[in-house]
Amino acid sequence: MIRYHAYSIEEKDLLYGPGKRLVLWVVGCSLCCDGCINPHLWNPQGGIEISSNELVQLCSSSEIEGITLLGGEPAEQAEKLLPALRTIKAMGKTIVFFTGYEIEELNTATQKEIVDLSDIIICGRFDKTKLNHFLHFRGSSNQRVILNSERYKKYKIRDGQNTVVVSITENGEVICKGIPDNDMKSTIMC
User: How far apart are the C-alpha atoms of 81 and 157, rounded to whole Å?
Assistant: First the structure.
């Protein structure tokens, strides 16, 4: 079973990747980067469980272009995620893989296969000393975006703008997606 915090269907290209995507926030991260915006996802015992079959079913809609994996740290659940990712890829869907590891650190056969299946990879630890709110997909300037497949070889990385999506739940909870700067945080209470 795959452990996750939440999933949603998103069309926020600047945050999660091209097209309409299933976005899955997994739990568990041993990297624990200082300044991480998701420390609530570090505990590998937290979250909810989902089976590979259920995850594939969520991606099966013809409207969904692919899946985006965030965390927590998806590479730390590589063995649990891989069966679903193989099927999702075989369905013609794309994979966007966010990882705090450098590609060179992903050295198990399972992790390497996830890298090979991924169409876009965002890699590298968040470094708060290199924080930059104007990077597409990244929070710090040391992180890399790798266009890893022919499907997105011409995809344009659009640095230079800060995208934050703010929503308010029925219960009045404010949810921010993206990396708000200090002015945004104080204005919208993220």
Answer: 26
- Residue pLDDT, tens place only, 5-48: 999 898 878 789 999 999 999 999 999 999 998 999 999 999 99
Task: Please answer whether residues 25 and 6 qualify as being in contact, where contact means their C-beta atoms are separated by less than 8 angstroms.
Answer: yes
Task: Report the C-alpha gap between 90 and 142 in whole angstroms.
Answer: 32
CB 10 within 8 A of CB 20: yes
- Of 93, 85, 108, 98, nearest in space to 152 by CA: 93
Q: What's the pLDDT tens digit per position in 86-106?
A: 999 999 999 999 999 999 999
| Dist CA 54 CA 69 (whole Å) | 15
What are the extents of the domains in the chain?
A: 2-160
Which listed CATH number (1.10.8.60, 1.20.1560.10, 3.30.565.10, 3.20.20.70) goes with 2-160?
3.20.20.70
